[in-house]
Fold these 4 entries.
Entry 1:
Amino acid sequence: MMQIRNNESCRAILFIFGATGDLATKKILPSLQQWYGDETPFAKIWCLGRRPLDEAAFFSLVESKGGFKLSDALKNRIGYHCLDFDDSPAYPALANRLDEGTSTAQRLFFLAVKPEAFLTITTKLHATGLFIKDRSDHRLLFEKPFGDSLETAGEIQSHLMALAAEEQLYRIDHYLGKEMIRNVLAIRFANRIFSESWHSRAIESVEITSIETAGVEERLEYYDQTGAINDMVQSHLLQMLALVAMESPENLGSEPIRLKKINILEHIKLIPGLPPIVGQYQGYHQQGKNSQTETYAEVVLEIDTPQWQGTRFILKTGKMLGEKRTEIRLRYRPNSLCLSCADTMNAAPNQLVIEVYPSEGIRLTFSSKVPGYDFIMEPVTADYCHSCRMMANKPESYIKLLKDALMGDKTLFASFDELQAQWRIADAIKAASRENPLIIYPPGTKTVTAKREMSC
Ligand code: BG6
């Protein structure tokens, strides 16, 4: 395999498939813009989309969809190429547009497209020689979801194996690039106060929440075939759960972390008799033409390992809710020590919240004596604001992931084994969710479960 020196990344070429879509215009290109303020990571960025646009029209589309102004530094590097994924001649036409002397440049192909298009695009890239199997500096990045079930993920993977080596595949879950999600392992394993009490004897429940105020907006076609379970639970929420529940890896290398995540994912189970709650926001039904797709999902899981027997893991996600918030909340069991057992003691169980969005930090709630002569307790909170320390240079998750992909570091990318385990759980959640009616909730609601009587 050809090896690449790290300092060659500035000669790399990035190809973004799905460049006029929401992901590219709202996340990838704004991240690149931030990155180009400090460095010039890619010599050229080829943006590929179906729409016949010239570069000026593409720039204004990005600016209006993405809600930001492209810098000249970034514009100077971008080329737009009209390419229908199925259109075979469009690929050699793209190859012809590459600058002379770029055949040795590192190539990252970012497939920000639906999983159905993964194989079509990879097959044509391979046939044209734009992507070469076993060239370690040619890498394919797949946006999630990788398939729509365990079965389709397996089909995609087995076809890909004819076109690419596993080392060349980077399966993206952008939550893994988020600052506070990367912080989970540090919090857990570098602090005795947490590592010693990280088990079911101390922790009653772990609630992982990622809710948003936005609806499906322009992504109806994708979302309606996907739903909240495949869109969020299968990837982001299960990856967060794996980081919270996995055992300590031997070191922070990519393989030890991936192995520990797989081990724990394989022990995650639904609780019998507790089917997932699914909901849909009012208005989606018309938008989605009588669709039954869930825009909200809440599921309670357990992990059958000695460390976690008896702890409940609650995953919650939904669109069009009252707030945008992502967090991991650990609720500890009440302390068995009863100082006087009077009501005035007021001691509340501890809670540890790892805040991912909108705040980034850690909140620990514990009991303390109220100042004064009497012995009365109250819950108080110690608050660590992580984001306060990085205002000027807030790391963007897609920058982190692209940097790692350039360097060949796979720690923050899901292995196929992890994905298989995630799909096994997601498929079981989808099947069990059919036992509950779809709850219709009003946009902006704070809680979906309370609206059960509104089910259709
Ligand atoms: C994406 C989902 O992976 O994550 C979207 O496809 C969702 O539906 C988004 O809105 C949420 O990401 P973030 O970073 O805004 O929490």
Entry 2:
Amino acid sequence: MDATLTRVRDDVFRRNPGETEFHQAVVEVFETLEPVLRKHPEFGEAAILQRICEPERQIIFRVPWVDDAGQVRINRGFRVEFNSALGPYKGGLRFHPSVYLGIVKFLGFEQIFKNALTGMPIGGGKGGSDFDPRGKSDAEVMRFCQSFMTELYRHIGEYTDVPAGDIGVGGREIGYLFGQYKRITNRYESGVLTGKGVSWGGSLVRPEATGYGAVMFVEEMLKTKGMSLDGQRVIVSGSGNVAINAIAKAQYLGGKVIACSDSSGYVVDEAGIDVALLRQIKEGERGRISDYAARRGNGSSFVAGGSIWDAGATVALPCATQNELGESDAVSLLKSGVVAVAEGANMPCTPKAIEIFQEAGVLFGPGKAANAGGVATSALEMQQNASRDAWTFEHTERRLSEIMVNIHDRCAETAEEYGAPGNYVVGANIGGFVKVADAMLALGVI
Ligand code: GLU
């Protein structure tokens, strides 16, 4: 890293103490930017680096709600409106007990570049709460969402900031949030949230988009080496929306997905994961993955704790959460002959794991590129809302596929242009950064 990058990085550390995930996300981008600053001295003169690391606006608010026992409960709500150079702030809401400002900022920072890479007119933002939906009744989740929106509504809008889902926020939560927004504002403003149900303004393919997109990205990476997913042994970590749809698409393309997980452990099913059963348990019953092995009845096993990556794979898709795949996991995957890794989650691989994959010549697709299909399809949902239209599944999936192929090609070309052929981390970071930096320059010192 050159002197300017080091100085700005140290400033970010000093001004955002204790926000380790945010620091990690910034360093990961900065480590690839040296050749960009050499080629574009104007970015340095306009202090683009300093500005891009400082969110345009950060909102933190109290979310009081009443549980089923009549007790008053308090959570903390966040919305970080990071960058609007390319369009309204866009990014999901995460409801998980681990959420604090550092997590929201890491996610918001990643989102700026991811969204730029999609080629759609969307800025970057992220939000959420330390609320834990697990074990809560529907009525509690509804009251929480209503209280959350009672503050959030004044900060968002179709042309301002468009939230969506992330971990802990799916169709149910988006419904309650949209209902409260509509009630407070007296506007049927469909474009204010994405991930809506299809009967009330949502887009077909949006639920599948992140997982499908990640698999489409892997297929493109494999193609560059004359390979495909057909016949690969695949591990998909997680068992939420991204993981389930990644499993379905990988199987459709001929991959054999032999394991998935949740926070309690993982299942190994050598016959290939039964997606319908997994969906029933996780989405239908909001149950635990340990149930899967018992109900599958084919000798598949549940391993409590442990590392899913030890099950061995040639293609690995981390689709659970940040920093879930570390150094020893990367080493373990290399031993089983892994050829491609793509991040369905945001920042699931640690910096050390990424280094190990890249040094071994493993195709590595970073989240900013590989999981961009979700937010890209959110932008397609916004398009449909703006034109009061609803597209078919086939048309929307074709658009998603074109976008993923485009992102892949742009990353590959950018990596080549900046002297790092085959390095998708360099391609994604630089491709996203240059687009946002150019727009920021054009808009003046704002
Ligand atoms: N939370 C998703 C992401 O990490 C989707 C965001 C969106 O659709 O706005 O990209």
Entry 3:
Amino acid sequence: MSAKARTVVTRFAPSPTGYLHLGHAYSALFAWRLARTQGGHFLVRIEDIDQTRCRPEFETAIFEDLAWLGITWEQPVLRQSTRFDQYRTALDRLDAAQLLYPCFCTRKAIQAEIHAAGRAPHLTRHGPDGPVYPGTCRKLDHAERRRRLAANQPHAMRLDVTRALTQLPEPLVWHDTIHGDHQARPEIFGDAILARKDIGTSYHMAVTLDDAEQGVTEVTRAEDLLPATHIHRLLQALLGLPTPIWSHHPMVNDDSGARLAKRTNAPTLRALRDQGLSPEETRAMADRLAATSRPVRL
Ligand code: GLU
């Protein structure tokens, strides 16, 4: 079956770490409208791998806010917190293929190392998430690694991206309906963390596996997450998962051009509702702000 003949499946995947704001509203509307105009399916996923930051009242509020906006979604809703076993299995597969290594570094130690290398700036690479991990634990000798593992030293699991790329028969490509064709360059992140110390998985791992699990054919999300797709495309190839297409839509900025975020007191949908805005007015406001937003520098 050609990609075009597939029934479109989209999703909205919020984390219940706060109330939804206009940026979320635009993202949800974008995915929902796409599914509707194509006669496809629109799904919701609750991204709650970081249980220390998620709260049940925020999850309840997500569904209330979506319904208020006039968005309908299909069941079942997928909760990432029910999927830790599947994330573990995929991680074990990559580990068995020797594509991972344990990283015992603390954030502080990494910063110190990068700072030291700062005196020789050519040694520090910068990626989309800041300075790239210098690969300290990749270079540990086997005996030392075994010793630390045997001593149960807390560790994350990192992808050995150089090694992973050598496993691929040809360069990976991916398509974005807004930003065009890309050759995957996961190396821009360096050796990304696939399993955090505290939760045993990561955003990259969970999102990639769950989009495949939910049969998502078009991944829609804000364009600040476009770089992450380089890693997701690599993980799909390594794990034999289907390749969707992507639409990284504009961010929603406020009228001053500042990015909306939970942290920056962006007005929540419930605050707008309490001020008397109707769902139609709220949808129109999200559309207007997205249409006038400045593109993110990628
Ligand atoms: N959970 C992510 C967020 O709230 C979105 C994940 C994604 O769409 O890939 O920003």
Entry 4:
Amino acid sequence: MNTSPIGIFDSGVGGTSIWREIHKLLPHESTIYLADSKNAPYGPKGKQKIVELSIKNTELLIEKGCKLIVVACNTATTNAIRYLRENYDVPFIGIEPAIKPAALQTKSNAIGILATKGTLSSELFHKTSDLYGNGVTIIEQIGEGLVPLIENGEINSPEMENLLKLYIQPMIATNIDYLVLGCSHYPYLIPKLQTLLPKHVTIIDSGIAVAKQTQTILEQHSISAPTSTTGNCIFYSNGKPEILRDILQEDYTVETLDF
Ligand code: DGL
């Protein structure tokens, strides 16, 4: 048994979509969330820079006593998790676009994926899509501009709607029946996407899978907290804390920290 917190980081507020699933499944676990909004978006940055930022976040979470780290960012996972696993002793959980379930379940043989440039150009993403995308048309779309709007609290803005329409139009034209959200910020766009996509399109993200994997790894390492405890959740932002508070929509401690 281990009551140390689980560390979670993302390029900003988006990874709270992953934190939410972890907290729902493991309410007895304490968590420390780092929103690296100051450096958002990670998506257009090169691999080296994404690795550097991931190291900075990891070292802060280790300093704060975290027993396991969830890289709640597809861009950081696909570019940096290998380096992190090789260089730090704590277990890491990553998040990757859910290509596999979409490719296995599609009936129209066409799926869409919306992700950042950093994720779509990564070696890890190509490996996964080559492995499971056989015979399936995968329409890849970089969600340029979406993360900055979310980080600015503009989820329901006309600019957002226009960008989403533009990005999903080629997918609709190709008759996709699954849309994979390959960025942890994008689950916050699901209500809007549902109004823009045909009814038969299923939207999938990786939040629940990451939460289950976190539970499995905690158990494997015998570092779960006792279920009789209640976890304490702390959130740090190096950007605008009010945006993080707004997206959480609950009364949690959000602190400003320069990291
Ligand atoms: N939320 C992140 C992801 O899952 C990063 C988005 C970005 O900073 O560009 O990819």
